[in-house]
Amino acid sequence: MAIFSFNKVRRNSVLALFSIIATVAATGSFASLPATAENLNTAWQMALSQNKQVEAAKQSQLAALKQVDIAKAARLPSLALTAEYINLDSPPTLNGNSLASLPNAPPGQGLVSVPFEMQIAEDEAMLYSAVATLPIYTSGRISAGISAAKSQASASHDKQRQTTLDIKLAVAEAYIHVLKITELNTIASAHITALSSYKKDVTNLHKQGLVSRNDQLMASVALSHAVQNGISIKNQLAIASARYNQLLNRPLSTAFTLEPLPLHGMTEESVQTLTARAITTRPELSAIHHKIDALGFTAKTIKAVTLPQIYLSGVYRNLDNDLLLDDEVIAYGVNLVWPIFDGGITHHRSGELQRQAAALQAQLDDYHQRIELQVTQAWLNLDETQQRIRALGEVLEQSAENLKMTENRYREGLVSSSEVLEAQNLRQQSLGNHASANYDSALAWIRLQRMTGEL
To answer: Are residues 275 and 132 in the same domain?
Structure first.
């Protein structure tokens, strides 16, 4: 009968799958599989190498590192060159009176005041100057600025890690979804083949007058429903494949073959252990910690601005004045700057940073609870899929035995065609449920790894 060919197809598929899994377990690799098949690691590499979100996170990280370089450069000397052209309406002139003695006058007598004018500069001049400054003491402003920039760079790195984990999870979900729909499509195709063969058998029996017309109609209706279900599954497979290709940044119609994933059992670690590890490894929490640190260091830089700042300075000026004996001036010294009062700007900026830090701390506390819930849900989902696999394993054997017995009884005329079709459907449903449970378990394992930050 047709069901035997269906069982054979399914049995060969299952044996092939278990053979692949056994090879993976024995060798630890997929070396024996076809070279054209993609594995999950390859998919991750392809997705991460061209993903725009990852590229954006990478550029943000590079920008944050440049901010560290900028903060460090504040320790180095600065040099400024200036040139200035001056055109006056008249040349600068010094006027005044000087004392002069009359000729032949006795000493100390005959002094008169004589007015005079003396030009001290041209009405046009080019002034040049060079000013160099070197911070000697900044009350910790520069060092705090460097620490703040480093904390921001660390937070940016954590953001990049989070983006990478999210992309890997999305690719893994699409990968597993394609495998799942492919398996369901195989089951649906085998079911259609079995029902087609069954319909032919019933048609022949009807022609011989051994079964009623109703049996033939029921077989046709069941086949029609199976074909419609097969069309729907093929459409789902096309959509899942397009989504997978989109995540790998390649044409949506690209053909591919995926390697099956190894089966994972239930983790032996408790939810508490996994949660504790997640709190230490999740980049989201680390990013918030670094942002809070950055705000603290930024507050120190703002406070340091109101404290003494000492600079070493050197100045060279060329006055471009031929009337002077020496129109070049070189000066150097130590400058002290101490902004004592700024109208309360520093106080208000400090208060703003305190509010921002408080907001991040509240967000951090919320993330702790959220991560605990995420890990718990992922652990429970994995446990559920493992229980489903065990329960469906028994149903899988029972559905095969039930179909075989129903088929034999139908041959003997002890059961109706509807019972055979029901047994066919139960077998197909049990195969689909078992396959779904396996892939749901693989997905639950992947999501648990993401929740603990170890994907």
So the answer is: no
Q: Quote the DSSP letter at residue 123.
A: S
- 3-state DSSP call for residue 139? coil
Rounded distance, CA 429 to CA 400, Å?
A: 11
Closest to 443 in 3D by CA, of 171, 47, 44, 259: 171
Question: Taking the CA atoms of the chain, what radius of gyration do you get in angstroms?
Answer: 42
Number of domains in the chain: 2
Residue 363 and residue 368: Cα distance in Å, rounded?
9
- pLDDT tens for 328-363 read 889 999 999 988 888 888 888 888 888 988 898 898
Q: pTM for the complete prediction?
A: 0.75
Transcribe 19-58 into DSSP letters: HHHHHHHHHSS-TTS-TT-B-HHHHHHHHHHH-HHHHHHH
What are the distances in angstroms from CA 228 to CA 47, 214, 216, 241, 450? 34, 21, 19, 20, 37
pLDDT digits 0-9 by tens, 46-88: 999 888 888 899 999 999 999 999 999 999 999 999 998 888 8
Which residues, 6 or more positions from 366, have their beta carbon under 8 angstroms from its beta carbon? Answer: none
Q: Are residues 94 and 161 in the same domain?
A: no
Token pair belonging to 346: 């520093």
| Residue 217 lies inside a defined structural domain of this protein | yes
Among 339, 360, 383, which residue terminates a domain?
A: 339
Closest listed residue to residue 330, CA positions, set 78, 128, 84, 77: 128
d(CA 433, CA 372): 30
What is the extent of the structural domain holding 90?
86-102+110-137+309-339
Using CA atoms, how far apart are residues 193 and 202, in angstroms rounded to an integer? 14
Please indicate, yes or no, whether residues 334 and 410 belong to a single structural domain of this protein. no
- Distance from C-alpha of 404 to C-alpha of 77, rounded to nearest angstrom: 89
User: Which residue in 214, 226, 234, 229 sits closest to 424, CA to CA?
Assistant: 226
Exposed (0-12), middle (13-18) or buried (19+): which is 232, by Cβ within 10 Å?
exposed
Residues 6+ apart with CB under 8 A from 406: 415, 419, 420, 422, 423
Domain presence at residue 267: yes
Q: Which residue, 292, 323, 339, sits at the end of a domain?
A: 339
DSSP H or E run through 318: strand 309-318
Is residue 43 domain-shared with residue 170, that is, in the same domain?
Answer: yes
Q: What is the DSSP letter of 340?
A: -
Q: Is residue 81 part of a domain?
A: no
In angstroms, the Cα distances linking 436 to 172, 221, 329, 342, 385 are 16, 26, 86, 68, 9
Residue 135's identity, in one-letter code, is: P
Sheet holding 309-318, edge to edge: 78-87, 124-137, 309-318, 328-337
Which residue has tokens 């419609």? 228
